[in-house]
């Protein structure tokens, strides 16, 4: 891969990779590290990509694997972070900001499918391919995640 093609891919997909990593690890610093590692793997990779969509899926899959590797590492198991999330993305609408905060509080397997489905506009079959799980598992996770959000946001709105 030549440097101009690599730079084009980084410019186009850096934000997608970062947001995917952030939805996995829920920590800005770790997400930045995962993003950097993902693009380093792309630079070293000799994969032939069919199109930009193939590149995007490959990058998200690598980011997911890097996130899982980070959570399995000895360092992560023995160290506690002082600042899990420095600053959430700011939305114009405070309701969207509240929803994002609740999504980030969900377990990783639920927050990732919600992120890919709603923020990255992937279909269930594409999410299944990216995460290496069955399509029915993706649909189940989406259903459970929506129910968790409904329960949390419903309770929060009752007390306002």
Structural category is mainly alpha
Find the count of extended strands (DSSP E, 2+ residues): 0
Strand and helix order: HHHHHHHH
Percent helix range: over 70%
User: Distance N terminus to C terminus?
Assistant: 54 Å
In the predicted model, the low-confidence regions spanning at least 5 consecutive residues are 77-88
Strand content: under 5%
State the major sheet: none
Number of domains: 2
Tally of separate helices: 8
Q: What is the CATH-assigned architecture of the largest domain?
A: Orthogonal Bundle
Evaluate the radius of gyration. Answer: 17 Å
Mean pLDDT: 80
Q: Looking at the structure, what is the overall shape?
A: globular
The CATH topology of the largest domain comes to Rna Polymerase Sigma Factor, Chain: A
- In the CATH hierarchy, what is the class of the largest domain? Mainly Alpha
Structural write-up:
There is one protein chain. The protein is an all-alpha fold. It has two domains: 1-84, Rna Polymerase Sigma Factor, Chain: A (Orthogonal Bundle), CATH 1.10.1740; 89-160, Winged helix-like DNA-binding domain superfamily/Winged helix DNA-binding domain (Arc Repressor Mutant, subunit A), CATH 1.10.10.10. 76% of the residues lie in helices and 0% in strands. The protein is built from eight helices and no strands. The chain has helices spanning 3-25, 28-44, 52-72, 74-78, 94-105, 108-119, 124-131, 135-158. It is globular.
């Amino acid at each position: 891969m030549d440097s101009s093609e690599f730079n084009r891919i980084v410019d186009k997909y850096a934000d997608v990779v970062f947001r995917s990593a952030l939805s996995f690890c829920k920590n800005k610093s770790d997400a930045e590290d995962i993003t950097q590692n993902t693009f380093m793997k792309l630079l070293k990779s000799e994969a032939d990509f069919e199109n930009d969509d193939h590149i995007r899926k490959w990058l998200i899959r690598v980011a997911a694997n890097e996130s899982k590797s980070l959570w399995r590492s000895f360092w992560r198991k023995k160290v506690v972070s002082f600042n899990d999330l420095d600053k959430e993305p700011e939305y114009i609408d405070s309701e969207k900001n509240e929803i994002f905060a609740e999504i980030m509080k969900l377990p990783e397997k639920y927050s990732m499918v919600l992120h890919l489905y709603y923020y990255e506009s992937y279909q269930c079959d594409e999410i299944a391919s990216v995460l290496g799980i069955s399509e029915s598992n993706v649909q189940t996770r989406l259903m459970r995640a929506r129910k968790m959000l409904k329960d949390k946001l419903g309770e929060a709105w009752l007390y306002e």
